[in-house]
Amino acid sequence: MTATVTPLRRPPSAWAACNDASLPDPCRDCQVRQRTMCAALDADEQRHVTELMTNAELPAHATVFHEADPADYVYNVTDGALKLVKMLPDGRQQITGFLFPGDFLGLAYNERYACSAETLHPTRLCRFPRKRLEALFREMPKLERRLLGLASNELAAAQDQMLLLGRKTARERLASFLLMLSAGAKRRGLPTDPIVVPMTRNEIADYLGLTLETVSRNFSWLKTRGFIRLLPAGAVRLLEPEALSRLADGD
Amino acid sequence: MTATVTPLRRPPSAWAACNDASLPDPCRDCQVRQRTMCAALDADEQRHVTELMTNAELPAHATVFHEADPADYVYNVTDGALKLVKMLPDGRQQITGFLFPGDFLGLAYNERYACSAETLHPTRLCRFPRKRLEALFREMPKLERRLLGLASNELAAAQDQMLLLGRKTARERLASFLLMLSAGAKRRGLPTDPIVVPMTRNEIADYLGLTLETVSRNFSWLKTRGFIRLLPAGAVRLLEPEALSRLADGD
DNA sequence: CGGGACTTTGAGCAAATTCAACCATTGTGG
DNA sequence: CCACAATGGTTGAATTTGCTCAAAGTCCCG
Lengths: 251, 251
Fold this sequence. Notes:
Chain A contains seven helices and 14 strands.
């Protein structure tokens, strides 16, 4: 147990600034630009936004921010996956959303974040100081327009989730979830059939308002009825998307 | 059964225009202005917004719009109460929100409304054509800023509701609901202790993801333990708000 | 004052949870 | 390289919470 003397006065931040002209523009070949708030920007506007941006790759199971922290930053996900988590004092938790490349992080706040954000995998993020980004809205109303549109979609998705949590059976919830992942993959231009399910049974349960055992049992049920096939590495083949869709709405 | 010949070519719309200079300005003594999107506007800007506004008083149990209708209008509630409803094909329904004077209606869309909106009581609404309102954003970015702020709050509230629906017990849900109503009344400058509960047990159930019997049983439980007292006309006295609050988070 | 809508309460039931055991995969250190 | 611990997943049995079905009871409102 030898104590290591660290020569650094401050621990190095994971977040690297992007306004160094000597470095290549990190937004230059951004793969997800068209699906982020940046899609609204022309080259010149993009430069202004990039100037106040920092980015980082966080390891798996890292916390980006905690529920009730001051909402000082907003983020774009460029690679990896995240979960948004709300906790009750006794430890029960609800995952309010999963985020993937191209998704925006930090719409639900009120001076303080409404939930925590944790990485599922190593994840790359672009970070923007919220106040300074909001200041840019004056010059770039398109940016604000875009965020309002994103918020609208989020709100519609939140209402779908309320219907799922309040009124669907366990089986309907899982079927809905698999279709939701498939639709998300489609939006992101990824294969929609053998979908990748990058979260544990426990995380799926915390998202669907169930226990991990109930989720597992229903995976088995879907499997034995021939609706899905479980492949290695958490991939799932949707054998009967039509039937699954009917199942999802309890029809 | 005598057929009545109606002399009208078109049925009279409930919605009255507000751009008639001969009429008194309907926004002149709006009681809820400070809590709506209009709070951001100066007198001159308000006039422009009022020009494209129509308003109406709808009777109880009227539908303002249906889920999946084209989202052509947005609304301000000036008086009364509404519910937002999502339905499953077999008739199960989830209420995703209740709206009261000062609330904005129509944030969650995606070309089409994400849910239906129905009045609980006779309700007065201001209606704005969405496209024309959005066109005004160019001249009045403050308006858009305000809506983004409202959407943020809605999103945070939606996440609270997901935690409630996914992870709270029936008792915790009802306690949370009563405190939510109390907090809403406070925001609106209304009495927070004998709160008015203007919805039926069935509507509360559809909001909390329960059955009406379970809601009723838990009202009784709270009553016999001395947490609340049920008064005439749907009023509820919160005798132990502190204890109720602890109950709401299962602590 | 009568009728319909809403509410309360009870009894039995079912879906999902809890508790528990076991299996599979992966990564680590001896 | 293999044993083994750790993590995650599956399955079973017992339990519980909330649901369904049913019967009264209450409150408005005309």
